[in-house]
Amino acid sequence: MSYFEKRIDGEQKYKGVIVNVVLDRAELCDGSIVKREVVQHPGGATILPMDDEGYCYCVRQFRYPFQKELLEAPAGKLEYGENPRECAVRELSEETGFTADEIIYLGADYTSPGFSTETLHIYLARGLHKGKNHLDEGEFLSVEKHHIDELTELVMNGEIADGKTVIAVLKAKRLLESEK
Amino acid sequence: MSYFEKRIDGEQKYKGVIVNVVLDRAELCDGSIVKREVVQHPGGATILPMDDEGYCYCVRQFRYPFQKELLEAPAGKLEYGENPRECAVRELSEETGFTADEIIYLGADYTSPGFSTETLHIYLARGLHKGKNHLDEGEFLSVEKHHIDELTELVMNGEIADGKTVIAVLKAKRLLESEK
Q1: How far is it between the farthest Cα atoms of chain A?
Q2: CB-CB neighbours of B125 under 10 Å
Q3: Across the interface, which of A65, A141, A157 has its CB nearest the CB of B115?
Q4: Residue among A18, A76, A69 at smallest CA distance from A47
């Protein structure tokens, strides 16, 4: 059986810095009319850089909504019209200084499909070359080196809870295991 | 090195059905003042029910922000004051009809820690007992049975992109592998 929710009309309720919020009226498959609140987000890219020995470079940064520092794979929002792969490469360079010979797509992450349009595209970077990072103004973070096995442990025991990083680590680990 | 962003003040910009949005002023560690936009969400729980042969029960439902149907682990928002485990058990029953002898915590998922407070708590249910599902009004979904190996394939090839479901499947699969 297939379901559909057809937009009737709607209005923008909030126009913000990162997100906009719209409140639509939609018709369900049984003909009933409901409100659908949608947080619109430009989307982004996440990239896990891993060297030939399996060591990965993550960033530790303060996340205001959680009022604590989180360990995450480098990531950033898409700029207007930007290709996700270009965004990933740009964020990798800005946050860690690395360039990479190989960029492997690990798939999309719909972070909250019940109410948000945010899609993150997740990549693995291999064949790393060290350069100098160059953070945006007002961006403060530390780069940390952890082995993929340690990151997998931190993910499985819940110490890493950032969704995109959990996905990047577990997919990268499975990919490595499949290559053995 | 440790970073901190201290809230100075802020105002609620939007009060909605699922989310609220606040726009704060915060002081960074270098003393500069920035805006911090925060989407406030009550959080939720996700639960992947798996039988003794490794078959899992997922739900296919229309997701308005993506205008398509997605295959997801059963999930729902926390009701006011609700414990995440109770929420998981409630959603499992409502969406699939199952009760479970064993509920295993697989960790938290911060879906979008850059701008949203949403935390999803992820569980694995085993020792399943079939009952009758009882959907909320206006909730339309189909229950589908897939083996954990097939779900892992769908996650790895990108066909399943819902973040919480990707995490639930990959963590459950690793847990199974570790038990062998």
Answers
A1: 58
A2: 26
A3: A65
A4: A76
Distance from B99 to chain A by nearest Cα, in Å? 24
Give chain B positions within 8 Å (CB) of A69: 2-3
Distance between CA A27 and CA A35 in Å, rounded?
A: 9
pLDDT band, very low/low/confident/very high, at B137 (cuts 50, 70, 90): confident
- Of A137, A139, A177, A179, the catalytic one is A137
Indicate the residue type of A90.
Answer: R
CB-based contact B30 A140, cutoff 8 Å: yes
Question: Would strands A33-40 and A99-110 be described as parallel, antiparallel, or unpaired?
Answer: unpaired
Number of residues that this document lists for chain B? 180
What residues of chain A lie within 8 A of the CB of B119, using their CB?
Answer: 161
ipTM: 0.97
B136, B139, B144, B145 alpha-carbon torsion, rounded to 10°: -20
Between the alpha carbon of residue A93 and those of residues A38, A57, A114, B27, B98, the distances in Å are 32, 12, 33, 26, 48
How far is B103 from A119, CA to CA, in rounded Å? 30
Residue of B nearest to A107 (CA): B158
If you average pLDDT over residues B56-81, what whole number do you get?
A: 96
